[in-house]
Amino acid sequence: MKLLVDKKGRKHLVEGEKFQTDLGIVDLNSAADVAKSHLGHEFYVLNPKLIDIYEKMPRSGSFILKKDLGAILAYTGVGSGDVVVDAGTGSGALALFLANIVKPNGRVYTYEINEKFAEIARKNIEKAGLQEYIELKIKDIAEGIKEKNVDLVTLDLEEPWKVFAHAKNALKRGGFIAIYTPYIEHAKRTVEVLREESFKSIKTLELLERELEFREKGTRPRTRMLGHTAYITFARKY
Ligand SMILES: C[S@@+](CC[C@H](N)C(=O)[O-])C[C@H]1O[C@@H](n2cnc3c(N)ncnc32)[C@H](O)[C@@H]1O
User: Fold this and answer.
1) How far apart are CA 106 and CA 92, in angstroms?
2) Would you say the pTM of this structure is higher than 0.85?
3) What 8-state DSSP symbol labels residue 22?
4) Which tens digit of pLDDT belongs to each residue from 172-211?
5) Does residue 117's CB lie within 6 angstroms of at least one atom of ligand 1?
6) Check: CATH 3.40.50.150 for 54-236?
7) Whose CA is nearest to atom 14 of ligand 1?
């Protein structure tokens, strides 16, 4: 697989030897760092990183965005060798970023209740080459978590509080739980049930992203920003 970037900055993930765009046909057999289409247009040829696969991968529904993925990784300190339980898988975005960090000796167990979504996620995981580090389970996580001594549980599903008691059993002491809830009522219920379950160091965040524009006239933030996506609540088992 290659990543082709054209003169307009558009990115194309290409599998196979030939690639066709409005800028012509590119033969990747003869491609070096820069490839030329039969119409003479140039493309940078790169090896794709996980972020390139994430940006192009098919989605089954709502999707965790980069600002929130980064926060989950940073605020839990998840690292190489860790064992993570994730639900629901959805298209697999969070599972992929977790696996990319816990590999080569760690593992991500990701639960998805919907077989069709699981199939999309399975293909995304294979495309990213991370299938060795992710076990995709077609299972309702509210029925229980089999894994033990888990370092991190991540939940992005409706009524996450139904899973907190199972998560507590699965987590090792010091382990983290991260819960992604789009609505404030759900964030509130999340915190209440985490307290009832004696989770500690409970903290809820919302991240907003503002990109800068550099123009001849001057430098300023873009008018449009990436505003609310979800509240992320973090807690630990002591
Ligand atoms: C918003 S999506 C998750 C997106 C995902 N975290 C990502 O990074 O792309 C929520 C998913 O949870 C799944 N789901 C809902 N309840 C579930 C349950 N009890 N057990 C497992 N999966 C569940 C849904 O089918 C849906 O695919």
Assistant:
1) 17
2) yes
3) T
4) 999 999 999 999 999 999 999 999 999 999 999 999 999 9
5) yes
6) yes
7) 88
